[in-house]
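Please decode residue identities from the backbone states below.
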């Protein structure tokens, strides 16, 4: 189904937040690339991300939050989480925790864990704080196509598939976040990135 896609400026965040609260999809810049988001606790909205991106249903979608304290509403806190969040959030560390029933199964593709991050980007943080809800966020592109680094690149792929695109200028790009699985014993790095194993070990072994 085609929707009317609005191109918004950073000062129009209220309109973007309203679209998200209504179950819509919004594209915005993060500290890596542009992302497409929906309310993480709205199963229908998350399903719309899969449709808009033509994303395979077996691929889970990471969740972004504005503050570490909000994680407890939908994930089970494990030892080391608070220390890691304090050390590396906002920033390029994705932390995997057990999900709770408060998070729809579609977000995690039926799995029992959820990948979490606070992005180090002022516009993304402002939107997260304004909505005051966790957002399911994945790269703003059709599945299998290059991630968008600008609003124009996102529009070229997702126009008519999302409700709004916030033009926040070029996304910084760069290396994807480190992914750390805290559900393992010991915790395991699933993807290497800007936060090194030595940095993580230094926090966890204090």
């Amino acid at each position: 189904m085609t929707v009317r896609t609005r191109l918004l400026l950073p000062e129009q965040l209220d309109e973007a937040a309203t679209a998200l609260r209504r179950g819509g999809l919004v594209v915005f810049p993060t500290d890596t690339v542009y992302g497409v988001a929906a309310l993480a606790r709205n199963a229908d909205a998350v399903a719309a991300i899969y449709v808009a991106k033509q994303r395979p249903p077996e691929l889970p979608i990471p969740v972004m939050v504005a503050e570490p304290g909000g994680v407890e509403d939908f994930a089970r806190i494990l030892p080391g989480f608070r220390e890691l969040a304090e050390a590396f959030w906002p920033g390029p560390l994705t932390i995997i925790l057990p999900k709770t029933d408060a998070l729809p199964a579609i977000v995690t593709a039926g799995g029992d864990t959820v990948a979490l991050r606070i992005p180090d980007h002022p516009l993304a943080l402002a939107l997260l704080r304004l909505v005051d809800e966790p957002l399911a966020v994945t790269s703003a592109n059709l599945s299998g196509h290059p991630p968008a680094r600008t609003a124009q690149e996102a529009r070229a792929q997702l126009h008519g598939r999302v409700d709004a695109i916030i033009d926040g200028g070029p996304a910084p790009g760069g290396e994807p976040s480190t992914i750390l699985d805290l559900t393992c014993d010991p915790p395991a790095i699933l993807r290497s990135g800007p936060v090194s194993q030595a940095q993580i070990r230094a926090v966890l072994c204090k």
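Observation: The chain has one domain: 6-204.
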